[in-house]
Specification:
Radius of gyration: 26 Å
Helix content: 40-55%
Distance between the termini: 61 Å
Number of helices: 13
Mean pLDDT: 90
Number of strands: 10
Strand content: 15-25%
Shape: globular
Largest sheet: 10 strands, mixed
Structural class: alpha/beta
Length: 331
Amino acid sequence: MLQALTHLSRRRALQGSAAALVVFGLLMWWLLPLGESSPSGRMAFSTGVRNGVYERYGKLLRTAISKDMPKVQVDLRNSEGSQQNIERVATGKADFTIAAADAVENYRLDGAPGADRLRGCARLYDDYVQLVVDRGSDIHSVEDLRGKRVAVGQGRSGVRLIADRVLDAAGLDPVADIEPVSAGIDTMPGLLKDGSIDAFFWSGGLPTTSVRELSKKMDIRLVKLGYLVDRLHKQGGASRYYRAATMPADAYPDAQQGSAVPTLAVANLLVTTDQANADLTAGLTRTVIDSRDHIGDQVHAAQLVDLRTALFTDPLPLHEGARRYYRSVKP
């Protein structure tokens, strides 16, 4: 009798254990993304000029990726800016990058190599076009740049593209009517400070550290540019991506002295190609959205990344991996 009871107890215990394992298994199936392995490998990410917003954003994004996708190694590569970034990704020299929408459209309209393979992952934040001069300068409009020494960005930068179009909209030849100086944001402030140039163009998120630091070392002023938006739109092509915007008064307090500045803005996109791994692209897009506040603590422009608008990557179609991510978080 005792032996029978012992056998029955063991059987019930085994049945109870089996039931518990089934429940545990169902719970784990519900909680864990089974069938989705974490992406692995190396990723080449083209950023921008040293001390620019692209470079800073790239470094912080790499840190976020290392936490979210620890098997992915990110190689950051400096560049002259948007135009070089697009060329690198389209031709397989980099896997992902950040670029302004006008530079992307310009590359596509030119029918440049690999243009048809470009895909968008997210709309990030806006670049604001900034024309910086000494506060005592007689330059109060773009037209006043005639005959002046003007830093217009490096040859393959987004700044150069914008500067040329803005100068043209003001009726100036970008080569004949000014003395163009090829320089990036890493050297422009120093050139203005020592009197080597009379003005410089910059296009970047607000505030750009180099401009803010310059405003603390010398008296500078930001020239109004918003009045040119209609003339830019008449140029057609990539110029349709410029829109009127206002730099808030607290972007550069020392330079603006409490006044907002009407200017131009253009959206930045996270860009890849149709060859990028879908799981990796979905994971990167998720990290960009999830790390917005953390990165935004140090790169203020990143605070403007918004899930509601991130999927609008015009002029590029969404990458399938990014589309998968947006569908997964759709309310």
